[in-house]
Amino acid sequence: MTFDYLADPWFYAVAVPAVILTGFSKAGLGGGIGSLSVPLMSLLIAPSQALAIMLPILLLLDMMGLWTFRARIDARILRTAVPAALLGIGVGWFMFSRLDANWIRALIGLEAVLFALQKLFEGRAAWTGEPAPWQPGRARFWSAVSGFTSFISHAGSPPMMQFMLPLKLHREIFVGTMAWHFAAINFSKILPYAQLGLLDLSNLSTSLLLVPAVPLGYWLGLRMLQRISAGVFVRLAIIGLLLTGCKLLWDAGSALFAN
């Protein structure tokens, strides 16, 4: 059955908040809860359609992030992370039609929940004290996983946060580095998504209708980022990661048990 995006108000009741949440998350927390957009839209439409509709939205948000955080990045992280993430994108492209994405969501969801709980139990130590040492191997691993899961379900933030949060970067450097990292990832998805037939006129038209919600979410997130302390930022990022992990686990479990 073909979903009529233009005629169904329930779609917009879910999609508009999802877009605002994504913009808020990208500008205010570096991602995390923005990964909920595809699961939320998938309540009404096929996950592949949700992926396609969200890609132009993410690209627009990425362009805003490239400008906003043009001088607030950690170049060392990007030099290591982006090539690894692009490798993950390639693996995701190859495996897209060959695997059950629900198992990937379940694995990433479980890992995100365990990591978030660990950080919550750390308390103040999660944002104070010495940062984790720089480990290029760890950076490459989590970045490659991030590229892979981003391609499969736009859920690249949870793996990347597991590498980034222990570094205890300044919150604006954290968000800026994540913005540039995911800009590289999302722009690299255009050709693969087109080859897979996801970027059809119907999906692109739906993305265009949702564009007015983009700047509102981004502005709200940016305003919050400029006003909160390091402790509040980390706590919110961890809670967002925990919620995202729970949602991924729920969606994956519901689909797997239904089959």
Provide the low-confidence segments as ranges. Answer: none
- Estimate nothing, just give the exact number of structural domains: 1
Q: Count of DSSP helices?
A: 12
Bulk shape: globular
**Total number of β-strand segments?**
0
What order do the helices and strands follow? HHHHHHHHHHHH
Structure description:
This protein is mostly helical and 259 residues long. It has one domain (9-258). It has helices at 9-29, 37-41, 47-68, 75-95, 101-122, 136-153, 157-164, 171-188, 190-195, 201-210, 213-227, 230-258. The two termini are 20 Å apart. The mean pLDDT is 85.
Distinctive features:
mainly alpha, 0% strand
Q: In terms of topology, how is this protein built?
A:
Blueprint: H1 9-29, H2 37-41, H3 47-68, H4 75-95, H5 101-122, H6 136-153, H7 157-164, H8 171-188, H9 190-195, H10 201-210, H11 213-227, H12 230-258
Helix pairs in contact: 1-3, 1-8, 1-11, 3-8, 3-10, 4-6, 4-8, 5-12, 6-7
Quick rundown:
The protein is mainly α. It contains twelve helices and no strands.
